[in-house]
Amino acid sequence: MVPAQPHSGSPGCPPVTTIFNEAGAAIARAGSASRWRREIDTDSDYPERISAVKGHMRGLSVCLLITAFACVAMCQEFEVASVKPNTSGERGSHMNSDGGRIRITNASMRGLITTAYGVRDYQVEGPDWLDDERYDVNAKFSDELPKDPEKYNAVLQSMMQKLLAERFKLAAHRGKKTTEVYGLVVGKGGIKFKESEQTDSHTSRSTGIHYEGSAIEIARLGDFLGRRLDLPVVDMTGLKGYYNIKMDWVPDPKQPSGEKGNTPLLPESQAGPTLRDAVTEQLGLKLESRKAPIEILVIDHVERVPTEN
């Protein structure tokens, strides 16, 4: 296991709590200045000036918090990390993150990259061997990571990116490519799900035959579908809110299986819509063949063998 500097990805980087405390103090100081401005301003255009000050304050608060979070993401790295080739010959992989530790078993290089950069398999363009070589990762990180799931994932991804750069000399850049996709659009009869009344928490869970999302954006549903279909799914619905969505389906009987490509017959108890049919019948949405630009991650350089632990 290779030790790293706790809480820092560059020299002089402060702890997570310090970053957020200083950002909060800056917002408080700005708020005091705003109140002082209000007390001394007696001009006739006072309401307009105060409205402008409040607008600037809101913008300043958001900018300071975003900057603070960006610093947290950039400063974090694993405290200790082990990266080893996996030569078991197995094809399945597993990842678990809890208790300040992340364990990844038998992951391909493509899998490690998608985890680190938050992209899908089809978005990664690089050498042919990305799917062939397999690795195990065991790393420990600080307990001070944000509790919010989205912020937690963002910081974890940043640490993974640093790990891949250090151990595999990974270099990559983002780009765009126009390709075949499924466009997710609203059907003729309109949507069959409702907008969520609460937007504070956004959760989703799925199995091989069930999906349920609470207060989710449609783009998130598109990401889920894209992981299970043969093409990327792009949200073209124009729906901007947060929605509660449930969907059930059965495996597509048209998908060939077995050595001779025979299609097994489903028991009557398993009869039901395929995933694509469920999108139409249960959600009132449609998947249409389109061409659209998607973001891609181009791998400029990556080595097969990690540096020694």
Features:
309 residues; 6 helices; disordered N terminus; alpha+beta; 4-stranded mixed sheet
Principal-axes shape call: globular
The helix content, as a percent range, equals 25-40%
- Mean pLDDT figure: 79
Major sheet: arrangement of strands:
1-2-6-4-3
Number of helices: 6
SSE topology string: EHHEEEHEEHEEEEHEEHE
**How many domains is the backbone divided into?**
3
> Which segments are poorly predicted (pLDDT under 50) over 5 or more consecutive residues?
2-12, 33-43, 64-70, 255-268
The termini sit apart by: 5 Å
- Radius of gyration (CA) equals 24 Å
Query: Helix/strand-derived class?
Result: alpha+beta
Notes on the protein architecture:
There is one protein chain. With 309 residues, the protein is α+β, with helices and mostly antiparallel strands. It has three domains: 2-75, no CATH class; 80-168, no CATH class; 177-296, no CATH class. The protein has helices at 16-40, 46-75, 109-117, 149-168, 218-226, 275-283, and strands at 2-3, 80-85, 94-98, 101-108, 124-125, 134-140, 171-186, 194-195, 203-206, 210-216, 233-235, 243-248, 285-301. A hairpin with a 3-residue loop joins strand 9 and strand 10. Helix 1 runs antiparallel to helix 2. The model is unreliable at 2-12, 33-43, 64-70 and 255-268 (pLDDT under 50).
Short description:
By secondary structure, this protein is of the alpha+beta class.
Topology of helices and strands:
Blueprint lengths: L1 E2 L12 H25 L5 H30 L4 E6 L8 E5 L2 E8 H9 L6 E2 L8 E7 L8 H20 L2 E16 L7 E2 L7 E4 L3 E7 L1 H9 L6 E3 L7 E6 L26 H9 L1 E17 L8
Parallel strand pairs: 5-13, 7-11
Antiparallel strand pairs: 1-2, 2-6, 3-4, 4-6, 7-13, 8-12, 9-10, 10-12
Helix pairs in contact: 1-2, 2-4, 3-4
